[in-house]
């Protein structure tokens, strides 16, 4: 008889504890598979110390394969569950797909960033839920201070030295506290203009800092922040965000280049697709963490609404303490369903709160005893060392070194701004060029759902890594489309009414069709000029890779890049558009369709008017060419006149003129590259990326 198959989705606090406990209980009596996008368990409470340069990233990353014996690790992200077929469909980090069959399924997918419908936030803010976001914030803050030290303009210096954190819960408070200490240490090495120093702002609509904690601890945290110079503004939030600053709800305008979004989390949207009873975005389970009517399905952590037996009618909050305890009870009940041990109900008792404020300062109430100062700092760090499932010695060593040595304030440039978009449903995985790294992320319609407009007037939702009472309102809503990505980042701006829409026009990747996923049809040749509104189309002329040469395989280098533009009158110059290798006539099959043919549902954004395309010849019906097969050269009847060598692009050649020839034998159009081979770029590194609006694309050189 085959062994039962157990699949665990997610390796957060709940998923990791479930896998570790099941491995100990079953002992080769079951096949345990853990599905997770990364190969490590992230200890979230210490993430602010990674952003502040106290801890190295690997200190808070515990290896799954090294600490979970008898557990099979599968790298990937679940994007579909067949409850009747007992299978989990997933996508791995390189875009491959797979299926995992199961006899018992544990859902512990965790939570993602919570968005609010505030203009500009999705484009210009960054969250704080994963290692990529922490590494980006450390590099970004370091860069801003260094640029401010060299800035000649006082206003620019002030804007770069201003850092705005939205959300005064556990995460936001710790980020502001550690960030102020980090930038103050940098200023001692890179003096600012006279009277200038870094300024951190902490905003929240709640009436006080740390609204989930005891009021005495809240006062302690507020006092420490203000003593360090943090501008704490309660009852205030962001009304609008732009590239140059933010507009606050009290009417104040703040010039800044940094907006950190820490307003809370919401359950992973994976559970919404199951069609099972939900409670405020979480899957309803019984006290045994089992889904009613589905004996093979269990849920724990942030995605599960677990009844609070101490407070009838309430559910346990989305905190790390509860998720860690959920995992143990869930593993025991899964094993009991296989005949190993007995079932148990989930009961809890709060152990207290700990908030690290940097240095020797902290706020804590272990077992209900309020503490502050160095004593609270010792208790806080002792608790973290005891709670971590690994790397304790390394973490303690980093703390000791930070106490006696200055921090290394350097920017490594490992994570770029466009790699950590706020609307990502997988904050633990950084995006990579081409979308490979985000292939498994569930960036579907409504990924920003759960952003209750009324939530702006409620305290911050629990951020999933501390213990505390559940916020009054964490109910997500559905139907809110994903906020559009930053327009000035590679990967660009999605079409506002279509998934996968329009990337930024001046970034690599080009501009796709404004109202169609995948953009307009390509021109009839792949080695000629790509369609300008197709993904992979015309790159900005000041970007690396530039515009492909219309006459050469591999294309014309960008005019502003090293290598320059070849002389059009020399051998190897630009052929007429009607010749093989050139730009196909726009009225030929595969050419750019007329603007008047845009389907319904197109974006309402105004576009410059274009002359309508001429109708194709009626001799042969127009047939869309294959995307991979090179199109045939345009016929002699093409009404588009060729271009003479040396003529300015776009100017017609006089009728009857001889067509231009490229280098090689007379009449030979030259070899054609394979249709699926990308065009080679210049031999040397491209220059810095430029923006179409005149501002520097900061950090994305």
Task: Tell me what you see in this structure.
With 701 residues, the chain is of the alpha/beta class. The chain contains 11 helices and 25 strands. The strands form 8 sheets. A 5-stranded parallel β-sheet has the order 5-2-1-9-21, covered by helices on one side. Helix 5 runs parallel beside helix 7. It is globular, with a radius of gyration of 29 Å. The termini are far apart.
Features:
five-stranded parallel beta sheet; alpha/beta; 701 residues
Q: Roughly what fraction of the amino acids lie in strands?
A: 5-15%
What structural class is derived from the secondary structure elements? Answer: alpha/beta
Uncertain runs are 436-701
Q: How many separate helices? A: 11
Our measurement of the CA-to-CA distance between the termini, rounded to an integer number of angstroms, reads: 59 Å
Number of strands: 25
Query: Mean of the pLDDT scores?
Result: 72
Instruction: Indicate the overall shape.
Output: globular
Report the helical percentage. 10-25%
**Rg (C-alpha, Å):** 29 Å
Physical arrangement of strands within the biggest beta sheet: 5-2-1-9-21
Q: How does the major sheet shape up?
A: 5 strands, parallel
């Amino acid at each position: 008889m085959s062994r039962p198959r157990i699949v665990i989705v997610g390796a957060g606090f709940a998923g990791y504890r479930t896998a570790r406990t099941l491995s100990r209980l079953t002992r080769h009596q079951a096949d345990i598979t853990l599905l997770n996008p990364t190969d490590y368990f992230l200890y979230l409470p210490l993430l602010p110390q990674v952003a502040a340069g106290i801890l190295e990233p690997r200190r808070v990353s515990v290896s799954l394969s090294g600490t979970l014996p008898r557990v099979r690790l599968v790298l990937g992200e679940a994007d579909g569950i067949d409850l009747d077929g007992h299978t989990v469909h997933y996508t791995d980090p390189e875009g491959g797909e797979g299926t995992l069959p199961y006899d018992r399924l544990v859902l512990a997918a965790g939570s993602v960033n919570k968005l609010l419908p505030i203009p500009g936030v999705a484009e210009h803010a960054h969250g704080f839920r994963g290692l990529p976001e922490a590494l980006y914030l450390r590099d970004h803050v370091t860069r801003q201070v260094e640029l401010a030290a060299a800035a000649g303009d006082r206003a620019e210096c002030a804007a770069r030295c201003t850092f705005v954190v939205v959300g005064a819960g556990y995460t936001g408070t710790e980020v502001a506290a550690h960030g102020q200490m980090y930038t103050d240490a940098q200023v001692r090495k890179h003096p600012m203009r006279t009277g200038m120093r870094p300024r951190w702002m902490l905003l929240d609509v709640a009436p006080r800092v740390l609204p989930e904690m005891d009021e005495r601890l809240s006062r302690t945290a507020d006092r420490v922040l203000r003593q360090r110079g943090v501008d704490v503004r309660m009852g205030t939030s962001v009304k609008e965000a732009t590239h140059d600053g933010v507009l606050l709800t009290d009417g104040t305008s703040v010039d800044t280049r940094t907006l950190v979004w820490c307003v809370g989390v919401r359950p992973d949207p994976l559970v919404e697709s199951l069609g099972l009873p939900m409670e405020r975005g979480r899957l309803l389970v019984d006290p045994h963490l089992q889904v009613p009517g589905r004996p093979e399905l269990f849920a724990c952590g942030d995605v599960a609404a677990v009844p609070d037996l101490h407070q009838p009618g309430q559910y346990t909050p989305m905190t790390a303490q509860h998720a860690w305890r959920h995992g143990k009870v869930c593993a025991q009940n899964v094993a009991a369903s296989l005949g190993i041990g007995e079932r148990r109900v989930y009961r809890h008792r709060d152990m207290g709160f700990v908030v690290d404020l940097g240095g020797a300062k902290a706020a804590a109430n272990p077992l209900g005893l309020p503490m502050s100062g160095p004593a609270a700092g010792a208790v806080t760090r002792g608790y973290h060392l005891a709670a971590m499932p690994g790397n304790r010695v390394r973490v303690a060593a980093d703390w000791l070194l930070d106490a006696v040595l200055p921090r290394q304030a350097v920017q490594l440039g490992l994570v770029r701004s466009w790699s950590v978009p706020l609307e990502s449903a997988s904050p633990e995985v950084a995006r990579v060029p081409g979308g490979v790294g985000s292939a498994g992320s569930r960036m579907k319609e409504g990924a920003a759902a759960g952003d209750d407009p009324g939530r702006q007037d409620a305290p911050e939702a629990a951020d999933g890594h501390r213990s505390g009472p559940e916020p009054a309102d964490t109910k997500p809503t559905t139907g809110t489309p994903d906020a559009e990505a930053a327009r000035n980042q590679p990967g660009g701006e999605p079409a506002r009414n279509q998934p996968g829409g329009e990337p930024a026009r001046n970034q690599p990747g080009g501009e796709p069709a404004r109202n169609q996923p995948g953009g307009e049809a390509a021109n009839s040749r792949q080695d000629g000029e790509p369609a300008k509104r197709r993904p992979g189309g015309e790159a900005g002329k000041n970007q690396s890779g530039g515009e492909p040469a219309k006459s050469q395989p591999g294309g014309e280098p960008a005019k502003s890049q090293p290598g320059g533009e070849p002389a059009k009158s020399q051998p190897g110059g630009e052929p007429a558009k009607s010749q093989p290798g050139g730009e196909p006539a726009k009225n030929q099959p595969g050419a750019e369709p007329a603007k008047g043919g845009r389907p319904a549902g197109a974006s309402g954004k105004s576009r410059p008017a274009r002359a309508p395309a001429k109708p194709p010849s009626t001799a042969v019906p127009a047939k869309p060419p294959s995307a991979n097969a090179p199109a045939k050269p345009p016929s002699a009847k093409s009404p588009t006149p060729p271009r003479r060598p040396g003529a300015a692009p776009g100017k017609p050649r006089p009728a009857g003129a001889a067509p231009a020839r490229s280098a090689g034998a007379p009449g030979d159009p030259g070899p054609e590259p394979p249709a699926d081979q990308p065009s080679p770029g210049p031999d040397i590194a491209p220059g810095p990326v430029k923006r179409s609006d005149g501002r520097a694309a900061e950090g994305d050189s």
